[in-house]
Records
---
Amino acid sequence: MEIWINPACSKCRGAVTLLDAEGAAYTVRRYLEDVPSPEEIRDVLDRLGLEPWDITRTREAAAGELGLKEWPRDGGSRERWITALSAHPELIQRPIITADDGTAVVARSEEAVRDALGRGA
């Protein structure tokens, strides 16, 4: 299992604390430093069952600079969103846990972290 985190994020720290408390085996990826490639983002989106706009932090400064709120949210625009997430990883919602069963969750709550743990994480 892998968790994408920003150490400055309280939700990320909370998720890691819970994983540790549960004795989970996992790898930490500081995704602002180890930036996911477009292919890795596509894989995580497939595992989440979501689209890139679903995991985009639209209140970040970079989102405003790019004008993301005005971008179409359709299949034809999907790659444009993925490219933006890879170029500006601070736009990626966090934390994201990829579970051993091939799924993933956006683990912003204790319930979501426990869901990932229940998936064989």
---
Amino acid sequence: MSTTRQHPPGGLGREPDGTGTAPAVPADRQWRTLSLRDASGIVPMARDFARQALHDWGWLPAASADRRAAAEDVLLVVSELVTNACLHAEGPEELRIACSSKMLRVEVVDGGAGQPAPRTPHRAGRPGGHGMFIVQRLCLDWGVTRTPDQPGKTVWAELAAPA
């Protein structure tokens, strides 16, 4: 899993900064965007937003244990990425979720300069320091996209759609 691999511009949908012309996006790709600027209760708000998107896209209510687990994985990844932006990147600015028939992409935009990376947990039984390990374990891939000469970044993660 890569923490810095950048996909070709527009290769997985619209540009993370919303600018530029993207190549043709798969016809079945659907985007949802939630502004998190100046919001309170950001993590529960992000989870509720993601849960509603999963309902709208037919992931929920889940017809099987595998589909339920896939939806719960998405909600956990949303929570971890948004929490990471709250703790380490001056807070999240925006949550984006895209769904296609084969995968779901989560993007969290923040103004921070740091580089997220899984940390070696010093004590497995203590809270904290496990968020990016969770993301790495649950996702097909994840990484960071930066716009040259602009502050901040977009942390993204991709999960497989349930079969």
---
Amino acid sequence: MVRAKVLRGLVLAMGYACVAIGLFHVLLGNASIPGAGSAGATVDSLGRFFGAIFAGYGLAWLRTARQSPIPATAVRWLAGVFLLGAFGRLLSLAVDGWPHWFQVVLTGVELVLPPVFFWLADSEEKAVRGQS
């Protein structure tokens, strides 16, 4: 039951955080990206677009959190997308070198959280079935 509560809390936190971060990028454009303040209109447009997509990704987490039990398949897919983002950052690091330090921290978060979600994914479904 504890794992199920942790899962629900993390899924909600992920959803709200992604919506907030996405809207932050939509509203502030390049100013929301450390080190990209003078990247120009093309990068600004791209960042605002991806901010909207990220806000939508957060809404998918929130929709998942509203289901009972939280579906393990949805958690695994959403966590997999997050992990794919981390792999994209690692590819960027390999191709273009080290980004702003904050992006390195985000990469760490993006590598650590998906395995936690994968581990917790079926905890509510098991709790409903009476398993631990």
---
Amino acid sequence: MNESHFSLPPKCTIRPALKQDIKSIRRLVWSAKLDPTQLRWEQFWVIECEGKLAACGQLRNFSGAQELGSLVVAKDWRDRNLGTYLTQYLIQQATEPLYLECLGKRLAAFYSRFGFVAVSVQDLPQSLKFKFGLSQLAKILFRIPVTIMQYQENFL
């Protein structure tokens, strides 16, 4: 990864989500207009700052793969590198090939900084083809700019 490592701001900690975090996680995900389905608090990591949930991200498990998803930073905490920190942290936690899908070129550029590269549906493991294939259908039908990406560990 060619991105320097960032530290969390003072009074911020990263931790696995707890059951009582699900309402705050849902609020963050809805505020970013992300897919609110399949939010499982057990798969989330959160950054808590000054006693409030400032960011969240999910590592979803599939057969032979993981998906980085639902990564959101609360509006009041943006531009403090929380998204960068959380992305780096989730990459380190991944134990299987890591994929994600993102809307728009700006997000694709953000994730490419960490070693994610665009891949086609045909290049996906079988366990992700149906899920991400639906996104590609939306891309065609509704002209939504969806990019599927895979993390390349040896990114330089």
